[in-house]
Amino acid sequence: DIQMTQSPASLSASLGETVSIECLASEDIYSNLAWYQQKPGKSPQLLIYYASSLQDGVPSRFSGSESGTQYSLEINSLQPEDEGDYFCQQSYKFPPTFGAGTKLELK
Amino acid sequence: QVQLMESGPGLVQPSETLSLTCTVSGFSLTSYNVHWVRQPPGKGLEWMGVMWSGGSTDYNSALKSRLSISRDTSKNQVFLKMNSLQSEDTTTYYCARDKGGGNFDYWGQGVMVTVSS
To answer: 3-state class of A37 per DSSP?
Structure first.
């Protein structure tokens, strides 16, 4: 299975800041990478797919990028509602696999 | 609008079989793939299996011997059955729609299942 190594495990930032979350794939996944946000007690929500495509309805302060097997989610101008857990997921090879998650807290 | 809703028992005895139903609306099961994903409390996500729009299935190899996914397109329902449940199967189970390419754009609210006697 493809391993997705996600970092950091947790992150604390202030309103208005910009943060970045990384996922490193154990092999090339050819941009087949999605990012999800999950708030406490809720189901995950798709933010980004194919590494950099913004899902409908997701604010433009969320963006995704890639460099080789390293994928990044950037959140600009942090808002209170951005607090939650973030997961990456590869869909290039079966089975789909997820990163361990990043907990984002606002200071 | 697109909705998925999981239903099933909240408590299952060890070694028993779990049966869950995912009822969908707003889209056709013959046009979209539906996946099952689970998440232990406070932990990450584990993909379990998929009902392809064409009616075939694929499973996580770690669960394959215990897991079965089926559907009833007339009722817009996808079913998950997993046998020989143990405590490590205590988790929240989600069904999710695949918008294409293995990207899950709509999720159910999840159903928490506890395995305990």
So the answer is: strand
